[in-house]
Amino acid sequence: MTPGGCGTQRLFASEGHHSSMDDRVERGLALLERLEHESLPLADAVDRLEIVTADPTVTRTILDEAELRGIIEREDGIIRPRSRQYVSFDEDVITKDGDFECKRCGSGLSTGHFINLEAGEIGPFGSSCIRKVTGRE
Ligand SMILES: [Zn+2]
User: Fold this and answer.
1) Within the chain, how many helices (H) and strands (E) appear?
2) Which of 1.10.10, 3.60.21, 1.10.1060, 2.60.120 would CATH assign to domain 20-81?
3) What Pfam families does the database record attribute to this sequence (predicted)?
4) Which of 75, 83, 104, 130 is most exposed, with minimal Cβ within 10 Å?
């Protein structure tokens, strides 16, 4: 009995990553713009950006770009958001019913809350996690 490898071929769908980098950067920037903190540790900001990307390279790009565009100031491991475009919970948060998993804590949700940004939607989150993500609580 020799393994012939016949008939066990599988085709894997290739993950196209074309221009998704820009998309993640844009959403990361949009998220940073809306943080309701006077200042926060860099580590916290990086933590927040994990919602948008798990790739440290992209996270660094987002932070560099945010500093370049004047969205944040960075010094000694502290970030100060410069813009004051807070999330309006009436206008910028949309909810969807379905089977979701909270991006922040991983718990199951029957209603997902999304931050609806020009750059795209960020979420889903539970009703309390979305407030923590934006720094509201
Ligand atoms: Zn949650």
Assistant:
1) 4, 6
2) 1.10.10
3) DUF5830 (PF19148)
4) 75
